[in-house]
Amino acid sequence: MTSINYWGVVAATSVFKLLLINSYRSTDFEVHRNWLAITHSLPLEKWYHEETSEWTLDYPPFFAYFEWILSFGAAAFDKNMLDVSNLNYNSSMTILFQKLSVIVCDLVLAAGVLNVVKALVGKTKSADIHETKLRLLVLIFLNGGLFIIDHIHFQYNGFLYGILLLSISKILEEKIIEGALLFSMLLNLKHIYLYIAPAFGCYLFRKYCIIIDRRIPQINIKNLLSLGFTVVAVFAASFGPFYRHIPQIISRLFPFKRGLCHAYWAPNIWALYNTVDLGANFVLKKGRSSITSGLVGESLMAVLPQVQPFHTFVLTLIFMLPSMIKILWQPSRSNFVNGIILTAWTSFIFGYHVHEKAILNVVIPFALVSFAEPKLFFITLISGTFSIFPLLFTPFEVIFKLLFCSLHFVLSYSILPAIKFRWFEKLYLLGFVPLFLIENVGPYILPKYPFLPLIVVSDYCFISIFVCYVIFYWNCLTKDEIHWTITSKSAKEVKRKKKY
Amino acid sequence: MRIHIPNMHDIRLITIVPSENFVNIKCREIFFLGDLLELVEAKFEFGIGLYFVVVLITSVVVLEFCPLICEMFEVICIVCGLIGLILRWQVATFPYSGEGLPPKFGDYEAQRHWMEVTLNLPLREWYLHTSRNDLNYWGLDYPPLTAYHSYLIGRIFAAFLPESVALKTSRGFESSMHKFMMRGSVMISDLLLPALLVFHFVIKPKKRTTTWWPVLLGVTAPPFILIDYGHFQYNCVSLGLTAWAIMALLTEKITLGAILFTLAVNHKQMSLYHAATFFCYMFSTVIIKRADFFTGFRVGTTILSTLGLMWLPFGDRCVNVINRIFPIKRGVFEDKVGTFWYVLDRFLPVKGVVPDATLARTCAIVSVSMLIPSAIQFVVSVSSKKTSTESLQRAFLVNLFTNSIIFFLFSYHVHEKSILLAVLPAVLLLEWYPLEMVWFVTVASFSLFPLLYQEGSHLALLLVTTIFLLAAQQAGVFKQIKSKIHGLVFLCSIGGYLALIGGLLYVPPPPKLPHIYQAGIAAYSFVHYTAFLIYFHVK
């Protein structure tokens, strides 16, 4: 146990990732290749206007810069991948470069885990720190869902979550400006993190800019200005060079024409809403609905009223408010972390056009408090990861997703404090076994209804994700200070944990 | 789903239609035992019988090993098992031997072809050169259990992908779904992985500290993964049977061990490399040490009846089978292998000069005489009543290890893959000799480099070996390197391989010697194997 070396595990994991080089790649691979080509071969002004490929640049400018930097490495591997018109180009060197870039960027995540542990545990015995590091490494760095999305499906999430963790660790260490700097950079890398921005905003504002002087809150102008300046400076650095194209960028970043749900429904409230609509339509035969076309685009409800983006915003905001107020009321470290989880979770459940991958926004910060709520964490982990499964459907990858995620579940279960499940919880978890069969064999048995297994998966996962959300929300609001450090562990379980 | 076996048709007609010839035909048919079975086959489906046998064997093994299999539900075993499965499946995504290389393809096509042959032809034709079975095109050259195994898997293929096992028309069949099913078929017949998982819980040195690392190193040992899931073979079946046989023997289940080992030999004749050790062990424990002739008789009859069960269906055609299994014509070594004869051939050409039969005899004599010293020592130590169980177990595994190296180095018609036979005891000995065995397994993996380079899966080899070495490092194996000289020797040995591999990948060879690096790796491995052989003999 003590012989296990943190970076040794990271290195071994990286080799495992590289071994996936021959496996399936989704269209996201081509998306990122195209972005490499755009940023490398076109002048800055054209980045957000270029549309030779259907996969236009729709991430904020920092990510574009990031791709631009990567493209110099790409040029050393294979220059042809940097040609904008070279659509769907996938030479072996291109694949090697792109996969390697994800693996190398993932080291940021490993560093993030390390820093978060330092911030969380503080000054304790070094053996404790070492154990905690390994535990969080397992829970976050080896996350099965993250693994299959980044290294099979192809995205750079690990790197982004690394920056998120770094920013959380800085804020927990009271290095507020550094933390704010990192988080604003993160927002400019991928705007999905706007979901959790309210928690950061409330905490930073309350903690750094407000002083309670004899029960009267006062604003610390100096701190407010320095915080504001940091954030504005980062945004200026990001959007500044594009000042003439900002409306174009905004239209790329927030495409409201894409429909309430993604092609595959993320397990949120709208998946249930769609299901009800489908069911009602099936019974009433009112008209053709287009929600099951499996395409990204605006869709029409057959029976129930249409949901507009505005409605989802209002709902999301209403349900976020309690957690934000809690942060403003009691700006403690645990409320901050809980706030991040809750805002991410709320926007996952009520948001407009949510991707199934966004559940990682919940699961990854949740790992930080997993020792306080092991059961909730474990169930969310399983159903959240399972809801990502439909992303991979080719035969080889079906086995991969099963193996990687089971490994992560087993490891997580063995390092979390002992969980006692009640009978219905056990029953629910066992239900995932037939669900896996339905999901992967169903399309062969019922080729007429390819969408049916996916609906079943969404709705089944939604049950636990929603229930866990409610319970966790309640616990966060009612308990004053959740005992949330990761170090409380019985010695016996520590012994059972091994490499990986 | 019932597969129609074409040849059965006419026989069935004969048996059903009563005619004057009927009796004659029937008499003649019965005269040949094989043909009798064919008649039975026509009535009851041969497959059902086979399934029955498989289920029987499995259930006996499962019952016998019940407590051991329960060990598998330990967290360590589940985690290591999943890691092993992941690695295997990752290597499975790499190209197989002969992928997209008509007309001859590779071992993958051979295995597919065997399914086609066993599924479509009557049993008596499996090992015969006939108009329907061209033995020059990947004819069956493994013992009957491999053929039965191919038949069973072929039935699964016939149910899901019938065109991949159609007679003649399916030659060179390749598709991504087929690759998936073929890789899957290796995984479902992998008996080795569970054996490696439980072995270190069953047989262990007395003063043990942690148990995770030998299990992890066992499941990540690269040669097994690369040959079975990369190159494509079913060594995991025969090696797995051997591993279970070892476990049975060392836990005093001698009869079961004998059956399992006989099955292993009947799956791949290469398992005979291990036979000497098994024989010496059983003979000296049962006959010499305990003078228990009844058990001796029982073991003997079980072995014979297992053999009989395997070979009976072939009746008088066993000779054909044996000729196919031990091919004298195919030369003393295949391609570039790190054996004694290959290295000798570099300096003093023997292959093609000395007649094959003479060479084969020489090989046999040399290998057997090399076995004798260690065999005598082994028999003495086993027979002595003072030897503790633990040192007995170690002696058994060490003897298995040295014997397989001797056979690899000196026997006839050796493939580079035969080193797997030595890697198995090496992996099982990890807990006793961590450093030596990690070293040996690494050397064995690198020696396979030229083979995998041919297929374009050399990246998999390098990566899996890296994982293995990282796991060894995590286990603290390299902390055992006490002196700087040892460390230097180790580094030089690995560095030498890396230099040769780097040369193969990046430095074009001189035009006169196009295979200089492959030959270099073979010769370098030969030096290593010899060194390991001497080291373990001295020890």
UniProtKB/TrEMBL annotation, chain A:
Can you say where in the cell this protein is located?
Answer: Endoplasmic reticulum membrane
Keywords from UniProt, A to Z, are: Endoplasmic reticulum, Glycosyltransferase, Membrane, Transferase, Transmembrane, Transmembrane helix
- UniProt pathway: Protein modification; protein glycosylation
The entry lists its GO molecular-function terms as: dolichyl pyrophosphate Glc1Man9GlcNAc2 alpha-1,3-glucosyltransferase activity
One Pfam match, by short name? Answer: Alg6_Alg8
Q: Where are the transmembrane segments?
A: 100-121, 133-149, 192-212, 224-243, 310-329, 335-355, 376-393, 428-446, 452-474
Q: Which InterPro entries match?
A: Glyco_trans_ALG6/ALG8 (IPR004856)
Q: What class of enzyme is it?
A: transferase
Any single GO CC term annotated in Swiss-Prot or TrEMBL for this entry: endoplasmic reticulum membrane
Q: Return the EC number.
A: 2.4.1.-
Return the similarity comment.
Belongs to the ALG6/ALG8 glucosyltransferase family.
> Can you name this protein?
Alpha-1,3-glucosyltransferase
Q: Which organism is it from?
A: Allacma fusca
Provide the organism lineage as a comma list. Eukaryota, Metazoa, Ecdysozoa, Arthropoda, Hexapoda
TrEMBL record, chain B:
Which family does this protein fall into?
A: Belongs to the ALG6/ALG8 glucosyltransferase family.
Q: What is its EC number?
A: 2.4.1.-
- Keyword set includes Nucleotide-binding: no
Q: Name one GO cellular component term.
A: endoplasmic reticulum membrane
Q: What is its main location?
A: endoplasmic reticulum
Top-rank taxon: Eukaryota
Q: Which organism is it from?
A: Allacma fusca
UniProt entry keywords in alphabetical sequence: Endoplasmic reticulum, Glycosyltransferase, Membrane, Transferase, Transmembrane, Transmembrane helix
* A molecular-function term among this protein's GO annotations: dolichyl pyrophosphate Man9GlcNAc2 alpha-1,3-glucosyltransferase activity
Named in its record, the pathway it takes part in is: Protein modification; protein glycosylation
Where it sits in the cell: the answer is:
Endoplasmic reticulum membrane
> If you read the UniProt record, what top EC class would you report for this enzyme, in one word?
transferase
Question: What taxonomic ancestry is recorded?
Answer: Eukaryota, Metazoa, Ecdysozoa, Arthropoda, Hexapoda
Q: What protein name does the entry list?
A: Alpha-1,3-glucosyltransferase
Residues annotated as transmembrane: 46-66, 73-91, 180-199, 211-229, 241-265, 271-288, 295-314, 359-380, 392-412, 459-476, 488-507, 519-538
Topology class, membrane = Multi-pass membrane protein
